[in-house]
Write a structure and sequence with these properties.
This protein is an alpha/beta fold. It has one domain: HUPs (Rossmann fold), CATH 3.40.50. About 35% of the residues lie in helices and about 15% in strands. β1, α1 and β2 form a beta-alpha-beta unit. The longest helix is centred in the first third of the chain and has 14 residues. It is globular. About 30% of the residues are buried. The mean pLDDT is about 95.
Length: about 220
């Protein structure tokens, strides 16, 4: 049974911060692969600033080309309606792989607002990657409440070289000072994108004229 990290997001656009995080999670937990899943219609994000889903998927595909254990999935692009993670995990689980869901610490604290959070946590092991400088405290009342509500046994466990047998996994991966919103602003202002994302993604953004207009 393959151990697969599911890394979802709008990837609007994907950048080196996403890629480095995914590679470190893959290495530290000894996983078989990372599956990048661009959201077609993220239910928790405004759509006005989003590039078309097909373009965001293509940028992900270009960004991960050449990495032997990175894959891109269009599972959410093929499904109508909002891109609920629990629906995605149900579909991916049919392949029989052991799934892990990679999320940020802020997302974990907001997890109870997601669709079927308890079911989501039963379909995939949760892997939390705190943002650099984040004050995430696994012993806080807020974090413990989410843990109780989603019904995960084993508490929070830190992982550096192997995947613990149970619990919500915390991985402190390298965080680059990059943000998609800043990169979109750079495009609008005609500024350099070099060393912030793969050259193939930069060329795709330019060729397609993405992010040039102010968000509505």
């Amino acid at each position: 049974m393959a151990r697969v990290a599911v890394f979802g997001g709008s990837f609007n656009p994907i950048h080196y911060g996403h890629l480095l995080l995914a590679d470190e999670v893959l290495e530290r937990l000894g996983l078989d692969r990372v599956l990048f899943v661009p959201a077609a219609a993220p239910p928790h994000k405004p759509t006005a600033q989003l590039a078309p889903a097909a373009d965001r998927f293509e940028m992900v595909r270009l960004a991960i080309a050449g990495h032997p254990r990175f894959e891109a999935s269009d599972v959410e692009l093929r499904r109508a309606g909002p891109s609920y993670t629990v629906d995605t995990l149900r579909e991916l689980a049919a392949a029989g792989d052991a799934l892990l869901l990679v999320i940020g610490s802020e997302t974990f604290l907001d997890l109870l607002s997601w669709r079927e959070p308890r079911r989501l946590a039963s379909l995939a092991r949760l892997v939390i990657v705190p943002r650099s400088g984040s004050a995430f405290d696994p012993e806080s009342a807020a974090a413990q409440k989410v843990l109780r509500e989603i019904g995960v046994e084993g508490g929070f466990v830190h992982a550096d070289a192997t995947l613990p047998a149970r619990g919500v996994v915390i991985v402190h991966a390298t965080s680059l000072p990059l943000s998609a919103s800043e990169l979109r602003r750079r495009v609008r202002e005609g500024r350099s994108l070099a060393f912030r994302m793969p050259p193939a993604v930069i060329e795709y953004i330019r060729a397609r004229g993405l992010y040039r207009a102010e968000p509505a």
